[in-house]
Task: inverse folding
């Protein structure tokens, strides 16, 4: 869908263009038959099954509370001035926002690509580390100076970069755990270790998605800021958790898609969105004087 959208915008709507009535410019040259509505002969049992599952799907969809944060106070350009990985910086912001929201650290999922391998798909990065926890606690510790908190942040981000690279190189743990689970089921062997590890909920599920899929100069946001897109997100993995997708769009904009379930009394997407904005501002304040000098 992302590829299709990007092809439509620069090529179809900008170069081929449409008339004021919304029709394609040019003459219709085709021998294709006209559109014909298909009539399905469905037994009553099938219709009832479809209706039942439609109600289930509608209930699931209506329970999702999705809120979008369009962050334009600063973007990737500012983070690079701090000499920190943008992805690691944003992951630490999410850890800070979640801890303030939930009052605890929880198992966090971040998707990593394994394209270095043939048929490679994804591996899991686990952003929660001893270093990330130390930074989060340090942010609200009034006895710590800005320099001390910045040092904690850089250590947490450095650790995150190492974990991300390990995941990309096949050195993650979650795909290995899944393979052990598959083998244990095949051999019909009970594993208390796997049962405990795999039953822990991912209360914070995150992923950075690319803003552009095609290497195209027409997607230069500096010259074409009107072609920016907020993209899409996903729902929470755990019933009492959050699903947060973020998109770094150019140098000055970051989109966050924050989702949770209306049925959960512990989560609130509006509250979490405000928490992310607060975390970003608090982390910016650490570097204000230094970035202004640059």
Result:
């Amino acid at each position: 869908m992302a590829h299709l959208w990007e092809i439509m915008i620069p090529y179809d709507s900008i170069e081929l263009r449409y008339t004021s009535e919304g029709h394609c410019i040019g003459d219709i040259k085709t021998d294709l038959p006209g559109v014909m509505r298909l009539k399905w002969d469905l037994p009553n049992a099938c219709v009832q099954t479809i209706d039942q599952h439609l109600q289930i799907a509608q209930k699931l969809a209506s329970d999702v509370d999705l809120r979008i944060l369009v962050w334009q106070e600063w973007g990737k350009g500012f983070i690079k001035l701090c000499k920190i990985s943008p992805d690691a910086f944003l992951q630490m912001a999410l850890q800070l926002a979640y801890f303030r929201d939930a009052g605890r650290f929880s198992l966090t999922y971040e998707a990593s690509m394994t394209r270095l391998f043939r048929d490679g798909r994804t591996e899991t990065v686990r952003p929660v580390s001893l270093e990330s926890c130390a930074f989060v606690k340090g942010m609200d510790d009034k006895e710590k100076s800005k320099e001390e908190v910045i040092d904690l942040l850089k250590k947490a981000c450095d650790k995150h970069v190492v974990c991300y690279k390990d995941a990309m190189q096949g050195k993650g743990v979650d795909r290995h755990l899944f393979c052990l689970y598959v083998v244990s089921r095949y051999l019909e062997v009970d594993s208390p270790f796997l049962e405990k590890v795999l039953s822990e909920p991912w209360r914070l599920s995150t992923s950075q998605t690319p803003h552009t899929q095609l290497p195209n100069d027409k997607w230069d946001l500096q010259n074409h800021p009107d072609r920016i897109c907020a993209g899409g997100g996903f729902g929470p993995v755990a019933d009492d958790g959050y699903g947060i997708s973020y998109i770094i769009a150019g140098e000055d904009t970051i989109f966050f898609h924050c989702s949770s379930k209306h049925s959960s009394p512990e989560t609130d997407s509006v509250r979490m969105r405000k928490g992310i904005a607060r975390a970003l501002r608090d982390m910016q304040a650490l570097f204000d004087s230094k970035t202004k000098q640059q």
Notes: The chain has a mean pLDDT of 90. Residues 269-293 form the longest helix (25 residues). The beta strands are 64-71, 108-113, 122-125, 204-208, 242-249, 253-261. The longest strand covers residues 253-261.
